[in-house]
Design brief:
The protein has 259 residues and is an alpha/beta fold. The protein is built from seven helices and eleven strands. The protein folds into two domains: 136 residues, 3-Layer(aba) Sandwich (Collagenase (Catalytic Domain)); 89 residues, no CATH class. A hairpin with a 2-residue loop joins strand 8 and strand 9. Bound molecules: zinc ion.
Length: 259
């Protein structure tokens, strides 16, 4: 695939000191994109710390980062925030258990929450809390359901976290270094089979020249999914056999676009 070089100033992408390097992206012509709605259900207690204008601006920057990531990765998908609703204070200690948070939300609302729109396309539902550190020793800034299109996220999370969690909901996994951390005798085959539906063997994230793709836990993450046609500083950022989350998300989109 023909490729173009784009000069990036790292400081625009992270809090790292300013220096420049090259991110080589694939050139792609996307004929049709899946428009995916993201609905936000926000615990009212965030207003003790933040104004509604701040919350809206934060959501806008999460969505902008997501769309940059999808475009950079040549994935035929766009996201938009189409519903923002404040709900009575939700117990933020349940931030780590997205299934319980989903039940709390539905109890508060007293109604079902749609996970598809009128076209049958997915709606991703974010349950938004103020601070991810409020939940008992939470180590992570967001949690994705393994069975629905819900995820939790906090307002003090980096902009990349929204697309990271939606990546999980679309079938993307972490990079191998993250998966092996703290797991003795990690077995990738077992890992794929233990997920439901089973993970695709090319759905790993990737770390290239010390920087992570969006599904990694590297401190320095780039707005790209793993992809064997993307290079950072001349190092490949994916592997066609094991780490091509751009393909995973493209296939996720196409199952809806062909309808
Ligand atoms: Zn994750």
């Amino acid at each position: 695939m023909k490729a173009i070089f784009i000069l990036f100033i790292i400081a625009l992408l992270s809090n790292s000191p300013a220096l420049s390097a090259t991110l080589k992206l694939p050139e792609c012509l996307l004929e049709q994109s899946l428009e995916t709605e993201v609905h936000f259900y926000i615990s009212e207690d965030v207003l003790n710390e933040y104004s509604p204008e701040f919350v809206k601006a934060k959501i806008d920057s999460w969505i902008a980062y997501a769309n940059t990531t999808l475009k950079n990765s040549c994935i035929p998908t766009r996201r938009s925030a189409t519903h923002i609703e404040y709900v009575s204070e939700l117990d933020s200690s349940w931030f780590q258990d997205v299934d319980v948070a989903e039940r709390l939300l539905k109890n508060e609302l007293g109604r079902q929450v749609p996970e598809t729109n009128a076209n049958g396309h997915p709606i991703f539902n974010a349950i938004v809390f103020s601070n991810w550190l409020n939940s008992y020793k939470s180590q992570y800034c967001g949690y994705a359901s393994s069975s629905t299109f819900f995820f939790t996220i906090a307002l003090n999370c980096p902009d990349s976290v929204l697309e990271h969690e939606i990546g999980h909901l679309s079938g993307a996994s972490h990079d191998i270094k993250t998966l092996k951390e703290g797991v003795e005798a990690f077995d990738l085959e077992e890992y794929w089979m233990s997920s439901y539906p089973p993970g695709k063997p090319y759905s790993l994230g990737y770390v290239c020249a010390g920087r992570g793709t969006i599904m990694s836990y590297e401190d320095d993450r780039m707005p790209v999914y793993s992809n064997p046609n993307i290079y950072w500083d001349s190092k490949i950022c994916g592997d066609a056999v094991t780490a091509d989350n751009s393909r995973v998300l493209t296939e996720f989109a196409k199952q809806y676009l062909v309808r």
